[in-house]
Specification:
The chain has 441 residues and is an alpha/beta fold. Helices cover 42% and strands 20% of the residues. It is built from 15 helices and 17 strands. The protein has helices at residues 8-25, 78-98, 117-130, 142-155, 169-172, 184-197, 211-226, 245-252, 265-277, 293-299, 301-304, 320-333, 341-357, 363-374, 384-392; strands at residues 40-41, 50-53, 64-71, 105-112, 134-138, 158-161, 177-179, 202-208, 230-237, 258-262, 283-286, 308-313, 379-381, 397-401, 404-405, 418-424, 427-434. The strands form three sheets. Strands 1-2-4-3-5-6-7 form a seven-stranded mixed sheet, sandwiched between helices. The protein has a seven-stranded mixed sheet with strand order 9-8-10-11-12-16-17, with helices on both faces. Strands 13-14-15 form a three-stranded mixed sheet. Strand 1 and strand 2 (50-53) form a beta hairpin. The longest helix is centred in the N-terminal third of the chain and has 21 residues, at 78-98. The chain starts with 7 loop residues before the first helix and ends in a 7-residue tail after the last strand.
Length: 441
Amino acid sequence: MSWRSRRSRALVVVWVLALLVTACTGETTDTTEDVDTTATTAAPSDGDETTTTAEGDGAGGGDFVTVGVLAPLTGEIGEFGQIVSEAFELGINEINATGLNTCGDIRLQFADTETNPEVAIREADQMIGGAENLVGFFGPSSGEMVALVDTVHEEELVMVSPYAGTTELNELGGDFVYRTVASDLADGEAAAAFIIDQEWGTAAVLAQVAESPLSSANVVRELLADAGVNVVADVEIVAGQPSYEAELSQVIAQSPEVIYMSVGIESGVTILREADALGYEGEWMLSADLVGQDTIDLTGPDIVEEKVFAEGAESDPDLPEFQRFAELYEEEFGIEPQVFSPNAYDAAVLFGLAMMAGDECTGAGINAALRDVAGPPGTVVGSFEEGAEALLAGEEIDYNGASGVLEFDETGTPPGSFAIFQVLNGTFERVAFYPASFFVD
C-alpha cells in the first residue's frame, strides 16, 4: 500500500514559502491553513476556530455536544494533522447521519495547534471558555497531549489522539486521556526489528529534541544494542535549523550502514538532502512522522529511491472493518486511506459509542463508558451504527475498528500493528508487516 496526501501540493507550497522567509529573515512565518471541512458551518467563532456540525437529522434524544479538534495543521507534523482531522470528521459525519446518537449531533470546533504545546493549551482554554456542551478534545500530538493532561483532568474532558505515541503517556494516560495508536515503544520495536532482520551491523541514531521522536529513538537504541548492532553515532538535533551539516558530518564519519532518523518533516527533508550532498550512501530508517508523500517530493525522489525505509502504524488490510473504512474514505476523498486515518476514524466512532453507553452526555460520562465499548465482554461490532443499535437493544458491545482491536490497557493505549515502507517508484510501498501480536510480551 502506498501513502499519498491529497493536500500534498498545498502543503508543499506553504512549507517552501516558510522556508524561504526563514532563510531570508531568520524568523519563522505563521503558515496556518484552515482545515478543509465537509460539514456545514453552524456557529463560526472569532480567530482561527470554526465550529461545524455534520449533515444529519439530529434524531437522537439529546440536543448536541461539542468536541474540540486540537490538531497541528502547521508545523513539523502539519500534514498528519490535516489527515487525521479529515478522517475524524468523516467519522463524525457518519455518526450524525444515522440520527441514533442519544446525545444528539456532534459539533466540531477546529483549531490549529501549530505543533506547539503552548498554542494547544491556549486554544483548549478558549474552547473551554466558549464552546457549548464541550465534552472533549481530539487530535493533539505527543507534546501537546502531555501538556493538556492536567487541563482535561481538571475540566473532566475526554482527550483522544490517533498518533500521540510518546512513552510519557504510559504513565499519564488511562483516565480521560486515551489514544487509538500504540505507544512509541511499538514504533521503536518495529523499526529496530526491521533493522535487525536486515542484518545491518552498524547503525546511527538521529533524533529531534521533542516528546515522540526521543521516545522512539530511545527504544531503537536500546533494542539495537541488545541485539548486538553497533550504534556508532547517537545525535540529537533541534528542529527548524537552516542546516544540519555539522551533526551529519559527525554521523557520516562513522560510516553507519543505516541511519535511524526520528524527526519532523521540515528537519527531515533538510537532513536527507544534506546527507546526499555529503556523500552518504547507506540506508535510512525513518520514524512514522516522515511516512508521507511530502517527504519524497520535498527531498527529491532520486535521493530517496530504494534507500529510504520508514515505519508507521498500519491496519491489517484483510480486516473487514478496514475494508469498509477504505471504501468510505476513497468515496469521500478519492484516494486510499492515509497514515493514521483509520486511527482517527476509530476515535470518532468511540466518542459516539461512549456517549450512548454513558449515563450522561458529558466528558465524565464518556470517560466512564469508553473502555466498556472498546473491549470485551460484549457483542463485537465494526461500525457506529451497528454498535448504536446493539446498545439501544440493551446489549454490551466490543468495538473492533478500522485500525484493529482497540481494547485499552491501563494507560489508555490499545495494541497496534505496524508496517515497514520503502520508497519504490517514487512512493512509500509496504515491504514488511508486524501484527499487534508481535508486540505482546
